[in-house]
Prior knowledge:
6 domains; six-stranded parallel sheet; 47 strands; 7-stranded beta/alpha barrel; nine-stranded antiparallel sheet; alpha+beta
Amino acid sequence: MSIFPLEVSPAVATSTSMKARSLYALSPYRLPTESMLYVGDEEVAAILQGYSALWHPAVLSQAASLPRLVSPYDHEQPVADALYALPDNPSLLLPDDWTGKAREVGAGVFMTTGTRETTLEHLFACLRELYPDDDRLTALMALPAERVRPFLGIGLGCAVLEALFEARSQENLLPMEDLRQDLISATALLFDADPEAYLGPLQAAADRLLAAREAIHPVNLYLIDLFVPKSDQPPEHWPAALTAATPLNVVACAALLEQIGREPPARLAELRDKVGCDLVEILGGPYREREDPLLPLESQLWNLRHGQEVYQQLLGQPISIFARERSAFHAQLPLHLQAVGISRALLVAFDDAVLPTHYAPVIFWPAPNSGKQVEGFTRSGQAADSPQTYFHLAYHLHQAMMQDDYRAALVLLHRTGRATDWYEDLLALMRLSPALGRPVTLSNYFSETTSGDYTPAASPDEFQADYLSARTTSSATGAINPVPISGFAQQQRQRRRLDAAWTFAAVLQSLGGQPADRDGQPFVEYLARLEDRLESGDETAVVELPAAMQQAGTALANRLVARGQVGNPGYLLLNPCCFPRRVVAEIDGLSGVVVDGKLVKGCQLDGTLARVVVELPPLGFAWVSSSGTGATAPPSRMVLADQRCVRNEFLEAEIDPNTGGLRAIRDLRNRISRVGQQLIYNPGSTMRAESVQTTCTGPALGEIVTTGVLLSEAGELLARFQQRFRAWVGRPLLELRIDLEPVKPLEGYPWYAYHAARFAWREEQTLLLRGSCGLRSLTMQNRPESPDFLELRLGRLNTVLFPGGLPFHQRHGSRMLDILLQCEGESARTFELGIGLEREQPAQTALGLTSPVVVVPTSQGPPHVGATGWLYLLDSANVLLTSLRPVPGHANAVVATLQESNGTPCQARLRCVRNPQRAVVQNLRGEPLYDAAVEDDAVVLDVAANDLFAVRIEFS
């Protein structure tokens, strides 16, 4: 039975009633070759549809010549026995009666539009008028689209190659007459008993196109088909390459693949099968697409590690090329990718983000100073759903051939999955021969080409993305985000609670113990599931974090005081950070503390509440007795607060009585005013204090609280505020807590309409540095994003602003900086900042500010080793221990993640709570790299600048 809607007899199939005609598509424009032509989409589409329609088998069956794009000026007088495709847009400068003259001389004319269906309808109506009784022609017009498309693909290839010969100033080597004969033969075989017979002549025609292209570009030419759906919802439409036998590259985070697997699951099975056949490659890396550069390091690493685990589960293999739909690139990303086993990346922004400019299609992309690098692909691609891409196809190929030589590649980019008709024509041509490029997966492209550029390490300033604008309104629902700014500060503190629980569990395991099971499962397994829930956005996980951290801390504390003095109750304070900290613990029921200047720096008793400033060793403990027999705090040797100032041994902060802000903060040695602060509404406001009260001037704490209002320039009430300034004995920080209640809701673009804490300094020569993903670097950006710290450096003086996880900042000139607090939709009303002077390791201070201190009441103590001590100790201040975890399934091993934070290589010694048996340096996927030296209780590590690695420590 015939597959066509019309039965065709052999006599009809060989009919020659159609008069041979010359075929012309009228166009005022030639295909661009050396420069872009800025013409509207409608005009371009109408021209291309007319040209493509002339390659329909119904027209080609007895064409006197192959179709050509010609200028209307050359055909003001219509040619006899020609068939003209006349675009409806743009209007051509032809005589008013031109169509009538064409018909008088026996020419056919049909109008072309931007849609193929309408254009073909006009063509078929013209053919029926010219040949009313040709049954073979009727059968050809009824051909299904999949049998017509190879002819149109050949036509697209002819047009592009003709333009390429012109661009290269070479003689046109296309054998037009041979091509015409091949196509006529193919049309004659369309009704053969063998339904594939017509492909033989078409294959010959495609091979002729390939031979002609190789005369222009004799090496490989690649086509990279790239589909980038939205990361938060499964795509409704997929590119035609998925169902065709041509390679397709899909950018999809692991969470999106999970959604695809749920609705419908058959799609994921199809992807898995095609991945196995090398017809589909999944590009990705993260589990969720989010603003990773503004999140804690351990959150970033979880996103990559968990993503690889999910890819392995869903696809049977991890991904090998990193890519994202929403930009979140940063200077340290090559280091992170290498740490999780990814060595290649798609270095392309599909949004408005700014990335470093690269001229080679493949580069080596290094991380600063560390020596770690990945291969990066830098070509962004042309929109597959735009007619401009196919109109400029010769131009794009010419540029690729000129710039990239043997690495030349055409990248077609799909965002919605709906491509134009010419995309499917191109695929049809590709299935016959790689005349315009061989479709490949990106991995195959990397394998067949080499890097053309060894680029220097990029600075953080070279990566810019407007995360704030993207977060203000949800792309999926259109709802206002309630935490566009404060969500990062909340994540920072929640993550540090979780890391503290991991750390205490690991230390306890180092001592041979285990926390009790929780919710019917081993504690370590519970923590792993809790981490997955927290990072996946499960809000119920946040509620469980304090209890999990306290349970791990209590189990460790009980182990430490197990051999302490019975009947001597107290409190054990645990430090989850690997550096010493001076912390403030508020303990209810503690009536007396010995202030010795070493362990306890200060104490203040307010009824039954004791506020104790304690020196905590690195990843260690301090025990404070609660027996009440100790001496109370001696009087302070300085007045910590008066009517206008709070101070301690390190700094003095003067409060402005008119505004309620910070007039100046000074160091006590030079008495130089460093920085001032006010609350502001952008674009303009006045801060006015209503009260300034000294609320505490005790032996350990100096505190001033100011309240007031923010007024617009017209005197309108915008917001009410309260600011609390605190200086603790022994702590080199000024604590600033801001309570801000808007009266007038914030609306509009978040970078223009916001509330912020504005800091100002005197000297224009002051340099601004920021902490970004473990890097401390000079920044010249007007919007330097950093959740960790901002350092003002003038000569040897440095003043560090600690935003407490708030990442968005905006500069005004060379002497002012805003830390954004609220924009449209922001629900947070309380913000905690810090200001430090002469902080040599600001990354440590920033980490310590958001890290908890666990206070565990004990019934006996102190520990048998003394009232204070360390459990793990790093002797290099520039190396941070970001995580310490038990090794799953190994009762006597822990793994430590370390990061160098100051750009200085060193040899570090990690001393352990007991002597290790073995230490192995590994990547963050647990793959061993080399054995580290062990000396007594220390693991000796050679640390490169800005390096990130893990070390597995095994005990006997």
